[in-house]
Amino acid sequence: MKHKDIVKKLTLEEKASLMSGKDFWQTQNIDRLGIASIFLADGPHGVRRQAEAADHLGLNPSLPATCFPTAATVANSWNEELVEKMGSHLGMEAVAQNVNVLLGPGVNMKRNPLAGRNFEYFSEDPYLAGKLAAGMIRGIQSQGIAACVKHFAVNNQEERRMVIDTIVDERTLREIYLTAFEISIEEGRSKSVMSSYNMLNGAFTNENLHLMRDILRKEWGYEGVVVTDWGGSNDRVAGLIAGNELEMPTTAGETNAEIVAAIKSGKMKEEILDECVDRILELNFSTTAALQGKKPDIEKQVHHHMAQKVAEESIVLLKNQDQILPISQEKKVAVIGDFAQAARYQGAGSSIVNPTILDHTVPNLVQSGLTSIGFAQGFNRYGRRSNSKIKEACALAEKADIVLLYIGLDEVTEAEGLDRQNAQIPANQIELLDALYQVNPNIVAVLSCGAVVEMPWINQVKGLVHAYLSGQAGAKAVLRVLTGEVNPSGKLAETYPLRYEDTPSYYHFPGKEASVEYREGPYIGYRYFDTAGVDVLFPFGYGLSYTSFEYANLQITKQGVSFEITNSGKVTGMEVAQLYVGSQSDHIFRPRKELKGFIKVQLQPGETKTVSIPFDNKTFRYFNVKTNQWEIEEANYDILIGQSSRDICLRGVLFVEGTGAPFPYDADKLPTYYSGKVQKVSQAEFESLIGRKAPNARWDRTQRLGYNDTIAQCQYAKGWLARFAYHTITFAHWFFKKIGKRSMANLIMMSIYHMPFRGVARMTGGVINMPMLDGILQMVNGQFFKGFSHLLRERKKLKVAKGRMVRAAKGEV
Fold first, then answer.
1. What pLDDT sits at residue 232?
2. Which of 65, 435, 633, 644 is in Cβ range 3.0-4.6 Å of 47 for a Cys bridge?
C-alpha cells in the first residue's frame, strides 16, 4: 500500500466514512490527518460543476464552461491527437473550477440506435471508441486531475437501467463491450472508473466479482478507484468486497455503518477495506496536488476556438449531389429551420453544460460569406405542425437559389434516462421538407442530432451535412464547411441503416422487464450489416470531401501495413484511412471484417504520402471460451484498407501463426452465428452460445415487491395505495406529454417510473433510509397500517439520530 502509515492512523469508522460521499458531489474529509474532500463533476464534453442546488439530471444550471462537441460527434473526427488536445482543455477548465475527478469519457457501445444516451458515447466499434477515449483521458489527466471512464459495463439502454439484467456471452462481453474499457485503462491510464447501474449475467456490475476482480483488477492490472454511478449501490458490502471503493452520493452514514458492522461480524476482512482506503487516498492526494497553487487562466475565446476546431473536423458530409456544396457567394440562400436561430448543440441529462459562449447560425450569416435573403422558422421545435410557418418558409424558398434547411432531433428526444421511441425525424420537419421540395429542389440539409436517424427523405435533398451535436461553436463550424473555408473530413463512427427494423438488436431492445438478451452476439453495427449482406444507407466510416483521394502500393509485413494516399483533387483535404482485418477460416464464427487501425492524414492537391498503420495485440486476437483467454487462430487473414467499411481500396492477405488453442464451438449448434444473420436467434441457440439456461425475462408478478423492483411494478402490487400511485404517475406522464411539457414527462419516467425502491434511499442523501423504506414496502405489499406505523417509527429514530450527530458536531454531547 502507498499510504500504509495514514491508513494505520484511521479508526474503523473513519475508514468506512471515506467509502461514500460527504454530499452530492464531494467525498468525505478527515481534517486531523490532512485528508481533504475531493470534488467530482460531470464532464464528458464540458465541466458541469454545480455551485448550488446539486442534482444529477442536469435540471439546475452549473458554472459556465466550454461546451465541446459530444463524444458521438468527436468520434467522427477519427483523430486521437485532436481528442487528446480537447481533453487537455477539459482538464484545464476542471482545475480552474477545483474539480478533482471529471466524470468521463463514456465508452459504452452503441448496440442499438435508439439507446437514449448514444450522444454521449463514441461508436459502435470498440477499437475506435477505446483509442479516442484513451486520447481524451491522457489529455484530461495531463493537468494532474483524474478522468473517470464509464459506465462499466454493458450499459446499453436507459429504460430500467438501474435494475435490468444484461445477458451476454463471455466472448461478446470481452470482444465488444469491454475492449474500449481495456484500451482506456491500458493506454489512457484512467485513474478512476465508474461502475454502471445494471446487472451483468445475474449480478450487479459493481458487485460482479468476475468483472471487477478477475478482469479489471487481475487481468488488466487496474490500480485506480471505482466509483458507483449516482445511487448505483445495491449491497454496499458486496460492492466493497468486489472492489468498488467509492459510493456516491452520500447516504448520510447509513452504508458506512453497514461496512463497520460487516467487519465486526467477520463478513468482510478489514484488509479489504484498507486496500480500498489506500486507493481513495492515492486519488485524493494526487489530484488535490494538481489543484494547489495558481489556477490556469481560462481564455474563453481560445477554448471556444478549440471547440470550433474539434467541430470542424467532426462534421460529416453525407451527400453532395451536383456539387451543390460548397456554396459560393453568388448564390442567394434562404435559411430555414428552428435550429438555425437556436442551435441544437448538446444532449440532455447529467452531461448538460452551461456554455461560456454560444454561436447560432442566423447571427453569423453575414460574416460567413453566404448571401442570405432571409430566415424562416419553418417548424415548431417540439413537434406541432404549423401551416403558417410552412407557408412562410416556402415563400422565402421560392426566391432563393439554394435552400439551407436546419433539421434534427430536439433536446427532450435525446436525454439520459430515456430511450428514443423511434428513429425518425419529427413529422412536422418532414412535412416542411416535402413542401419546400415542391417549390425549390436545391436543398441542403444540416442535420443536428446525436444518434442514428432514418432518412426516407434523402432523395429530397441535394446536400446533407451532419453536424451531430457539435458544441457551443458548432454553428460557426458548419457555416465554414458550407462555404468551403473548411473541407469536411469527418467519417461516420456508426452505421446508418435504411430502416431501424434492419438493425441486429431490433427484436431484443430494450429489455422491458427483468432482463435483456444480447442474442446478436458480437454482430453489432457494421459487423452485422457487412457479414449478413444487409444494405445500408451510409456505412461505418463513410464521409465525403470536397476533394478526392487515391490509394496505392499496399505493403504488408508481420508488423503492419504501409500504403500511399494521393490527393487527386484540387482542394487541400484530410483523409481517414481505415484498416480492417478478417479471417478466411470458418472454424470460428466471426464478423467478415473488423476495424483494427486507422490514421488521419492531411494532403495538399496532388500530394502523395506514404502512411503506416501498425498491428498491435488486438489485431488478430479472439476470446476463446474454452481456454478462457485471448487466442490467435492460425489462418490466412484478409488485410483491407478502405475509405469506409464498404469502400475497400486496397486488399492483401497475410498468414498468421496461431496459439494452437482448441476450437471453442460446435458449429452444428450455432448455425445462425456462423451465418452472421443473427436478427432472429432462437432461445435454444442463444442458450448454446451462453452455455446455460437464460433467466426468465419476465417479472414474477406473484412475489412481494422488494428493494430492486421498480415503481413501474406497482401496477400489480398488493397494496391499493401502490396501485393508485402507479396510475397517478402514468396519468401525469400522459398529461404533461399531451400539453407539450415533454421535459416534465421525461423527468417522471427517468426519476420515478423506472426507479427501483432502493433508489428512494440511495438518492435522497439520507432523508429516507433503508429501515424507512422497509415500511414503504410493507405498504406497497398490502400491509398499509403496519407499514405506515413502521415508517413513522423509523423516521422518528432517524430524526433523533441526526439531532445527536448535530449536537456532537457542536461539542454539546
1. 93
2. 65
